[in-house]
Amino acid sequence: MSDKKKAIENLGRRHFLRNSAVTGVAGAGLAGGFGAGALMSSQEAKAAEDGIEVAPGELDEYYGFWSGGHQGEVRVLGIPSMRELMRIPVFNIDSATGWGITNESRRILGDSARFLNGDCHHPHISMTDGRYDGKYLFINDKANTRVARIRLDIMKTDKITTIPNVQAIHGLRLQKVPHTKYVFANAELPIPQINDGRDLETPDNYFTMFNAIDAESMEVAWQVIVDGNLDNTDADYTGRFVASTCYNSEKGMTLADTMRAERDWVVVFDVDAIEAAVSAGEFETLGDSDVPVLDGRKGSQLTRYIPVPKNPHGLNTSPDGQYFIANGKLSPTCTIIGIDKLPALFDDAIAPRDTVVGEPELGLGPLHTTYDGRGNAYTTLFIDSQVAKWNIEDAIRAYNGEEVNYLRQKLDVHYQPGHNHASLTESRDADGKWLVVLSKFSKDRFLPVGPLHPENDQLIDISGEQMKLVHDGPTFAEPHDCILLRADQLSPSRVWTRDDPFFAETRAMAEADGVNLETENKVVRNGNKVHVYMISVAPQFGLSEFKVKQGDEVTVVVTNLDQVEDLTHGFVMVNHGASMEIGPQQTSSVTFTADKPGVYWYYCSWFCHAMHMEMTGRMLVEKA
């Protein structure tokens, strides 16, 4: 054995796990965090000393968008500083901005405004010709089966769609070429079709679906029923193929049942064939939904099922467009699928496993793979608490019988990493500079804060031959995944435009009331509905008081006429649960009931001026 190979085999600090039973993933040892008390390696300590610093006044090179996990939001970070820049509320209630409270946000939330929670997993940025175009970011809600779109010019959610006929949207990716026409979303958990009380105790009749959402209209374009369940997904660089992992081919209803099979599968979808079938009317609809539903179960011409080991999780497309790589989770392997072999598979010219061109053994618990654009892959090993760097072409050569070492390095991370993401890696432009690893446990990394610990995000420099850990930091409520793009690929607005569609319905209401939002402070009554219009210019509201009657439904509309960048106002009506943000040149509105007589103050909640504390007014509520 060569010295290099010996060195690589000795990189880990958890060799006792090599002989552990794979089923330990489900056991108490996992929650304990194997090796949780281990100290940093000397390499990590050196990397920490060399840490990356972005000095005051300097700007980061990359934007990072983090899913907010079960916080239900998206977080914006600068890379490499790892400074949190903004939080974008999506499926959560946010009192700072008024998301879920204002009329504008509740219109976007629609019927799902009744849900007070969300579980974000996978943020992804729209593309043109396989490159980030900076227009939209899309994010899923596993908890309530939704997909949301964020406008990246204003960093606000502008559309939310509830997906019919399915439950628990998990894996989400975008069509890469010629542009993001579709958002592809996996519903993870099978349910009866139709789920109206039938087949409650007949799991054989449970199914789930692969879903395509029109990226512009945010309407569901079509759904494809599959065998088993669906986990993560990714698209190719031709626009034709999308692949998804299935970790529960058994359709087990218990943990043990989901782990019986030695192989599960990757489902490959032929988008061209699906679109043709929809155009030909070869679909049905279910229940009260009019979304076309197609049958993609085994034997369908729309899908192919490629066996892979065992309970696969992540599915990641290489930036050169050559491979889908599925991560084994309960197998120490990743499976490399040659995308150029998929047309022959759909023509039934080859068997499903003939598409597999490599299956490297990497370590325990491979979950997700990302890339540096130089032919190397980086895979998180959940149980080993490591990232494995390996060369794709060398792994393929080894699969074909050559004596070649495809492993380049293993780096300890802290602890139990899930997703990882390298800069620009989901596009053609993967540049191999930075790798973010999102670890599920922090254990001993930070000051204790009670029984609930933070998670740990780590930044790794991958620009050289060796990975170097340069930063770690605590984060709240399992951010789960992230995506990085260059700062010059985004052009966020600095000030709102007055014709922005975000508050178009509020402008229409003002027009119907005969009110000019830019010039008038006015109270308009229609029965027990009262519309209060006011202008804000730091440090005062256009109305210092207004009068209503007990029981009135009051809608306050505030237009911020300040044109200075970063001069945001707030509006809070004391003791009425009403608050909102009004950015420069924005109009915002909030509705509440004046249910008790008396004097109620309102005030500006975003610091705007030296006289900010004096920016107040009174609502006078007369007895009914």
UniProtKB/TrEMBL annotation:
GO MF entries: calcium ion binding; copper ion binding; cytochrome-c oxidase activity; nitrous-oxide reductase activity
Cytochrome oxidase subunit II copper A binding domain residues: 482-624
Positions annotated to bind Cu cation A1: H569, C604, C608, M615
One cellular-component annotation, GO: membrane
GO biological process: denitrification pathway
Keyword Transmembrane: yes
Chain positions recorded as Cu cation Z4 binding sites: H480
EC number, UniProt record: 1.7.2.4
Listed transmembrane segments: 21-40
Binding site for Cu cation A2: C604, W606, C608, H612
Cofactor annotation: Cu cation; Ca(2+)
Keywords: Calcium, Copper, Membrane, Metal-binding, Oxidoreductase, Periplasm, Signal, Transmembrane, Transmembrane helix
Pathway where this protein functions: Nitrogen metabolism; nitrate reduction (denitrification); dinitrogen from nitrate: step 4/4
Binding residue positions for Cu cation Z1: H313, H368
Residue numbers binding Cu cation Z2: H121, H170
Subunit record text: Homodimer.
Protein's recorded name: Nitrous-oxide reductase
Organism: Halomonas fontilapidosi
